[in-house]
Amino acid sequence: MATATETEAFAQRLKQALEGSGVRASPTVVANEFNLRYWGRSITPHTARNWLLGKAIPTQDKLRVLADWLQVSPDALRFGSLSTVSKNAAADANFERLDMADREMLHRYLALTVGDRKTVREVVTALSIAAIAKKPA
To answer: 4-79, what's its fold?
Structure first.
């Protein structure tokens, strides 16, 4: 069973992930959006409220759906992000592999508002799904 400190820390990470995805941290919004993506038994706004208030942590299957929806790592959502040093080293290594046009595009993306970033992510997701569908089997 998670301690009060763990559940409160989870609630803060969930709120940050919601904000980062441009989603309002409302129990009704979270429940409705979650239920669109989860194939198991749906949750109520009361359950989402408990997650947001730090009174409960979702089970692993629900945590994975939340993480996928909000485009964060399930481990980072549940336990917190990786150490700053290792995360920054990996990001720097990946950044160095990009050409100048891609680097400029990332700089422009990071300058966008949270809502505009969400729109860009949705467009990229739609394009990648379309590209996968076009590939011959």
So the answer is: 434 Repressor (Amino-terminal Domain) (1.10.260)
